[in-house]
Write a structure and sequence with these properties.
Strand content: under 5%
Oligomer: single chain
Distance between the termini: 34 Å
Radius of gyration: 22 Å
Helix content: 55-70%
Number of helices: 3
């Protein structure tokens, strides 16, 4: 059990998930956080009845229907950036 591995045994190697520098990884996280903040702000605006009525009367009425997809996209983008950053 404590001896050397067999010649045909699989060996594990260290593998870098990304070649991005520390600054690039922090920048990606900052963009993800800005995206989340933007979606939260848009959600607070869309929650106001006056804004919803104004959007419904203009050509941007689809924004109320599109908002759940923006929320999901924001979460998925942040979940993608966080593991690759190596900070979490």
């Amino acid at each position: 059990m404590g001896g050397p591995p067999a010649k045909d045994a699989a060996l594990e190697r260290r593998w870098n998930f990304t070649n991005a520098s520390e600054g690039q990884r922090l920048g990606a996280i900052a963009l993800g956080v800005a995206n989340c903040v933007g979606v939260l702000y848009l959600g607070s605006l869309l929650a106001q009845p006056g804004v919803s009525q104004m959007l419904a009367q203009s050509s941007l009425g689809f924004m109320n229907n599109l908002f759940p997809f923006l929320q999901v996209s924001s979460v998925l983008v942040e979940c993608n950036y966080a593991p690759s950053s190596g900070l979490f």
